[in-house]
């Protein structure tokens, strides 16, 4: 068993939500996975989050989910802490995956609320307490109302934070009034990590005290997000503005193509394929971009790479 | 391998969405399961639907889901067709369960839309086509917008009904304007089954041409729902009114306790436990009723049993 | 002052939600209004409902709303009871309109919940009590969650029904499980009127005890809806099926054109214009159908008129 | 006619959304209004916004709305630009109010989308174009999806910004990913004002380029919001953090009491009454806080006033 990096308190920085490279619905792109992990870690990130929404976790078979945990931990080999998404409608499956994560050497798990039956806040608290009593690893809460249809209310975060094993929150609501209320309520808990998901809001939240970002764009350009995080943490407003602007260009030009939802996810996978890093296959029910969108992504990517290099940062050739 | 009852076209009648008797989060109540199945079939039902919303399917481990399919088919032993819910966010897991269902002798499978990523209607059509090409059994569509956050639009039903393997729709929206539009669009397809979920609306939909009900109350009082279905199918309006009134009393007095959602599901499981049929354990994230609600359920159940017997129907003692 | 028809208890039958004929955003089509009212009343309807959702009430200036109340009552001249929608975000404006209605000789008013601030059920009860204490006319509750974003819960209806001045409910949710629960809870109150809005569900609700329909299609073909209502009230299932089928054809072929919401409303106004009854101008923010949709409506309308005549009913030439 | 302050381009700073002081549902608290306006202007704000959501505009009779516009402009007397909310479901009423605003000397109007019928984005564009062609004053768009149930999409803002008379956007979504996308798309339009509503997010948006805040708390403590705005505009991160923390304390302790929605609005009105500035009467359907909540507000207000004075700012005695 590998040496597991123990998680600092609070855990801070850029923790990319890794996409899952696939060859088909039930086969990992193992070579792509290795290239992708190395690419991300070379960008200086502070951790790696697998099996989140960006990782298409809910679309993957359990065989693939367990295999991905094992292979990722092996490839990462202790270079950065690995966080494993265990979000599920069935607590038994969450726990089974958490055990695989612990055995493989992951540092923590991440769980959004169950997303089929709708729960009241007291039921949500009971749910997390049920998990925590049985988990072999520390837990990050994951607020994701657009997909789970329930908000982990600020007072619920406060209540749950009293459990020693609950060590942080990843908020993907994009609602900064919500996030700032949580930040304010938790200001006496400097050990509790508060991350945001959407990269479009990472800079400003870190400027005001958040601990980091779980930003999809860091699959493609990890260094950009790391530098932006560092500038924000140090209060360098002018640098923040320049790098934040670059993040918004990525968001505007790579995540907004196509007609339906998930254009963000399709855009990242497509870009990684254009960059030669891994396959862009997506598990059912989603589908990768076809020719027209791919050509647009490729074209936009060229501009973005130039600008990223002009900022003095690495961009995959 | 058992003889599999071939599904009539259209398939018609009362097909109870069976609750899943559990001893704990990962153990079936096997004795309760056998009592429950026999109790339901003795009521004269036309089929049995397992692993639906009422069956808590999304809360169960896959081990339990597969085991339940096998044990149910074995206990039913060809007395009625068994329909198996394969609703999942991961198509690979839906297909794995469908294969178990086919091997165990189930007659058909039932799938609601994936419920994590939100899809457009064209993506939903692609999803069902992906499934259908790989399924070993006929498929019923399952419209369940309160839980999946997407409607299978009437035109989508029409489009999908052209696939030979798609044989019907179970609609649990409770939106009868929706249901009647589907019924109208499909009126030239007398082989395509249209069922509704909520028992509060079964009578009227069958009166106007629907093929049956997938009604939770039939776990407790199967004969009531069968007789109501028959009266409606035969246009006996006065009988319909009397029996429909009884169904509404069940709905009002057994499904509306407690503070949060799922009071319907908690009410049925609690009542079955009070009736001595099976355990009322519920898988996380839901919880069975505690003492106060259980006493209220028991009290209401006494009244309901008396009234059901006054209607000349069987009620469990 | 005219003789005001006193409202029977319960008030029953077909009460068309009249569209508002307009020449432009701030001018009534007065001649069209007279033709439309006479056309509807000649169809044998039991009342007339103005300033509902179908009447575009929220899009009209208050000048027009008050003028419409006065002119309508004058034209109707006691032939049928007139119900006036007073739904508003500002209770003061609801009351002002109710006073105009009382002076003009209307029989009752109709109010959906306020639709800007979201209220809890206790606040909703307080709101209706505030209104009722100040109203000069009986009040119908109006459940319209798709537009107001709040449900008048069955228990709230029960609570409010204790006020002598609250005499009924119009439910436009299309959720028949909801409606049947209300019907069951109110079954000891034979004086309290329960109407449904969507014409696609009117037949089945009347078969099971509802008191009538507030159906938009009755602007065009009032006799069809009256005959369907009578057949349903008398339990003539075969007649119900035939006429209900015709209603569904109207819904399918006239209300589903165009790309956005309100295709129902646009379809009715367009059809009335094609029939030569009144102008199809719609108040901002909605817009009437342009040439392409109008031609389709005209074409479908021809088929529908033939079928309605084959049913032995009048259809405008 | 007064001299109307012409609106700078871009208009910037703190523009409090003024509450509407009322004595009862149809009577302004005229003395309170004068005290409140003077109190706010003395805090150094850059403008005054009346008849927004915080101003309970949709709950007020039109008589009151027009009277408030006239009295406010008179009292303000050119000291700061007055912006008038004209949000309505009926465009004719919006225009009537806009004319009153122009005559009274207001500087601009503000309109959220109509909030009864749901519109597609092209219909929304048509709606705003209809308004703009008829408006006597510049227009700010107002994104308020929690109340209007429609988002003004970033591309819609971009399209509408081409009309000379549309001069800015107030975004109250609290969704900073949305806001940052708009900010990015509009970065070549330095004359177009981008404001946010929720005070919990004002600091960070101004740090990254927004033009100001329309923050309710500035009814009570205008100077705090002005100083926070100035610190953010100048990139003084440490000052921002300290003042932002104070804003969050106000939000946490004054806006989160009571059981239902609108606790924010009830909290501000109650606090202003405790501070002796104006009446806390709320127009139906909302209600002011009763004794228990008022005592809690008064207690929390004492702490807050001390802290605000410790920050070197004025707090009403």
Automatic annotation (TrEMBL), chains A, B, C, D:
Species of provenance: Echinicola jeungdonensis
Record bears the keyword Translocase: no
Coiled-coil features, chain-numbered ranges: none
Gene3D superfamilies: Aldolase class I
Family, similarity comment: Belongs to the DapA family.
InterPro entries hit by this protein: Aldolase_TIM (IPR013785), DapA-like (IPR002220), Schiff_base-form_aldolases_AS (IPR020625)
One Pfam family cited in the UniProt record for this chain: DHDPS
Cited CDD domains: DHDPS-like
Key words, A-Z: Lyase, Schiff base
Keyword Zinc: no
PANTHER family associated with the record: N-ACETYLNEURAMINATE LYASE
Protein name per its UniProtKB record: Dihydrodipicolinate synthase family protein
